[in-house]
Protein backbone atom coordinates (compact mmCIF):
# COMPACT_ATOMS: atom_id res chain seq x y z
CA UNK A 1 0.00 0.00 0.00
CA UNK A 2 1.16 3.49 -0.84
CA UNK A 3 -0.59 6.70 0.16
CA UNK A 4 0.03 10.01 -1.58
CA UNK A 5 -0.89 12.93 0.66
CA UNK A 6 -1.43 16.31 -0.98
CA UNK A 7 -1.81 19.27 1.36
CA UNK A 8 -1.03 22.94 1.73
CA UNK A 9 0.68 24.89 4.50
CA UNK A 10 -2.14 27.44 4.72
CA UNK A 11 -4.93 24.86 4.86
CA UNK A 12 -6.74 24.54 8.23
CA UNK A 13 -8.19 21.13 7.31
CA UNK A 14 -4.69 19.90 6.47
CA UNK A 15 -3.47 20.87 9.94
CA UNK A 16 -6.43 19.11 11.57
CA UNK A 17 -5.86 15.97 9.50
CA UNK A 18 -2.15 15.71 10.43
CA UNK A 19 -3.15 14.20 13.79
CA UNK A 20 -5.34 11.55 12.14
CA UNK A 21 -2.72 10.72 9.51
CA UNK A 22 0.00 10.40 12.16
CA UNK A 23 -2.15 7.83 14.00
CA UNK A 24 -2.58 5.90 10.75
CA UNK A 25 1.19 5.94 10.18
CA UNK A 26 1.74 4.53 13.68
CA UNK A 27 -0.83 1.76 13.25
CA UNK A 28 -0.10 0.57 9.69
CA UNK A 29 3.03 -0.11 7.67
CA UNK A 30 2.81 1.57 4.27
CA UNK A 31 4.83 3.72 1.93
CA UNK A 32 3.73 7.32 1.67
CA UNK A 33 4.63 10.46 -0.20
CA UNK A 34 3.73 13.97 0.91
CA UNK A 35 3.27 16.65 -1.74
CA UNK A 36 2.57 20.36 -1.34
CA UNK A 37 -0.35 21.70 -3.36
CA UNK A 38 1.39 25.05 -3.88
CA UNK A 39 4.93 23.95 -4.66
CA UNK A 40 4.96 20.41 -6.08
CA UNK A 41 3.83 19.17 -9.49
CA UNK A 42 0.55 17.45 -8.65
CA UNK A 43 -1.20 17.70 -12.02
CA UNK A 44 -1.11 13.92 -12.58
CA UNK A 45 -3.15 13.35 -9.38
CA UNK A 46 -6.21 15.43 -10.34
CA UNK A 47 -6.31 16.75 -6.79
CA UNK A 48 -8.92 19.46 -7.29
CA UNK A 49 -9.19 22.45 -4.95
CA UNK A 50 -10.22 20.85 -1.65
CA UNK A 51 -7.39 19.83 0.64
CA UNK A 52 -6.04 17.56 1.94
CA UNK A 53 -6.22 14.74 -0.58
CA UNK A 54 -5.17 11.19 0.29
CA UNK A 55 -4.79 8.81 -2.64
CA UNK A 56 -4.43 5.09 -1.85
CA UNK A 57 -2.57 2.75 -4.21
CA UNK A 58 -2.13 -1.02 -4.31
CA UNK A 59 0.19 -2.37 -6.98
CA UNK A 60 0.36 1.09 -8.59
CA UNK A 61 -3.43 1.17 -9.03
CA UNK A 62 -5.60 3.72 -7.24
CA UNK A 63 -7.92 1.89 -4.84
CA UNK A 64 -9.30 4.82 -2.85
CA UNK A 65 -9.31 8.55 -2.33
CA UNK A 66 -10.25 10.75 0.60
CA UNK A 67 -10.68 14.51 0.14
CA UNK A 68 -11.04 16.94 3.02
CA UNK A 69 -11.49 16.03 6.68
CA UNK A 70 -12.13 12.38 7.54
CA UNK A 71 -12.15 10.12 10.58
CA UNK A 72 -9.52 7.47 11.23
CA UNK A 73 -11.91 4.61 10.51
CA UNK A 74 -12.42 5.83 6.94
CA UNK A 75 -8.66 5.47 6.33
CA UNK A 76 -8.67 2.04 7.95
CA UNK A 77 -11.49 0.77 5.72
CA UNK A 78 -9.49 1.60 2.60
CA UNK A 79 -6.19 0.29 3.99
CA UNK A 80 -7.78 -2.96 5.15
CA UNK A 81 -9.62 -3.35 1.85
CA UNK A 82 -13.18 -3.14 3.17
Map the helices and strands:
Layout: E1 2-7, H1 12-27, E2 31-36, E3 53-58, E4 61-67, H2 72-79
Parallel strand pairs: 1-2
Antiparallel strand pairs: 1-3, 3-4
The count of β-strands is 4
Describe the global form.
globular
Portion of residues in beta strands equals 25-35%
- Spatially, the strands of the biggest sheet line up as 2-1-3-4
Helix content: 25-40%
Total helical segments: 2
| Termini Cα gap | 14 Å
Mean pLDDT, rounded to whole units?
95
Write a compact overview of the structure shown.
This protein has helices at 12-27, 72-79, and strands at residues 2-7, 31-36, 53-58, 61-67.
Written account of the structure:
The protein has 82 residues and is of the alpha+beta class. Helices cover 29% and strands 30% of the residues. The protein has helices at 12-27, 72-79; strands spanning 2-7, 31-36, 53-58, 61-67. The protein starts with a strand and ends with a helix.
What distinguishing features does this structure have?
82 residues, alpha+beta, 4-stranded mixed beta sheet
Amino acid sequence: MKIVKISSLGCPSCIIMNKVFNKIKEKYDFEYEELDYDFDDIEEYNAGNIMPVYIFYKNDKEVGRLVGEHKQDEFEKIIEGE
